[in-house]
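Morning run. Coffee first, then this:
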Amino acid sequence: MKAMKFLLVPSVDNPYDIRMLRSLGEELKGFGHECIVARSSEHAYVPLIDEAKIDVVLAVNKSRPKDYKTRHHARYVSWYQDVFLDTSGKVNLHDDDILYTLGTPKQLGLRLETQKYMAKPFYTGVNETNRASKSSEVCDFSLCGGLPLDFPSQPSRFCSSRLSRSVLFVLFQKLLLAAKKRNCFGLNYNQEVIKRMKTITEQVYKPLEGSLDIHEIEKALRAEVPPFFKNARMADDILWLMIRFAPKRYVQAVVGDESLEKLYGYGSASPNKFDVYFSGLLNWMSQTYPRIYERRLLIETVAKVSDSIHVYGNCMDRHGFSSKYYKGILHSEESLADVYANSRVNLGNNTHGLGLHSRNLAVMAAGGFLLHHRSREKVPGSLESEFEEGVHYVGYSGLDQLKDVARAYLDDRAQRLRIGIEAQKYVFQKHSWKHRASELLGDLCLN
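And here it is:
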């Protein structure tokens, strides 16, 4: 194979994505190829395709940009690890491109039209920076991995118990909240609606089973909450018209002097933004909130076994269930490996059941002991598909088993050490970044 130039594009510009692509890039360089790790935004990386004469673009959670003209012969490898509702059907690839998914497209929620390009599972890997040795066990449980911020969901005293309230009631509520100097110009003010949407999500999603179906949650949400959004959108239109055409002194009499400027600032924006807001909220509730919900249940359950818990990651200090255990952010693979090696039990979870991701593989590479829920199905990308339970990690089925299994292995140091050693040996034999680079190069030759 002739030497090629690869452009590696992260999903977002965070340390996790960049470390992952740099590790893959170093192994591709070992095979004689050139690699550039780019910024995630299209306006940053797309011009590089022509400027650097790129042969292959590997982009995480992205397909070909539709609005840019790039060199025709630059091939795309799209590697989907997360899928949202608004991206689930938007895979723009040519016939000679490749679609990689962390597991199967169906498992991620990716709905594909008829395609001629290659589509197959592709996983993350490990290298020597993930290896560590034990020095002293510093905590009973550790959990490494950030989360987005949560939406507040305590009902406001201005909310009624019914979602399908009248347009006039919503309008009155907005004006009343303006007078009280509250945020009344989006939907965040209505925490009752947020709470109801969370409740629906929790009823549909079964945590710690690896069975997330974002479209199933979307369907349940759409069946339950639109009446409020319809009335709120109409109330917003009335408010927008009122701000523009009602005498200012009348509006001032309703909301007061201090809220008037804010209200007129809102009135200068475009009306009818509720459809966009509702779509974004559906995305968050179906894909992101299950991650927060599941992580909360995981930590709250093991806390009943031991409160010696160390939690690391972005925004984990901003969640009530994890803030008391928060130990900061680990910025290097070496520091992560040290935590993995010296925690008695490393907690793992994945809402889709796709256990072959960097955190779990890195735990094994460090010689750490991994406790991870079983997946409802033995799908590609699950731990069960590549590793042996009881040999390389320990599994459990749902919250009911978690406490008993966690307690048993906290008391069995010999078993934890044995499993950590076997996992470390096996993960370097089968799941290194060198293996992944070789697989990628082989697929490019086949397709």
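The chain has 16 helices and eleven strands. Good start to the day.
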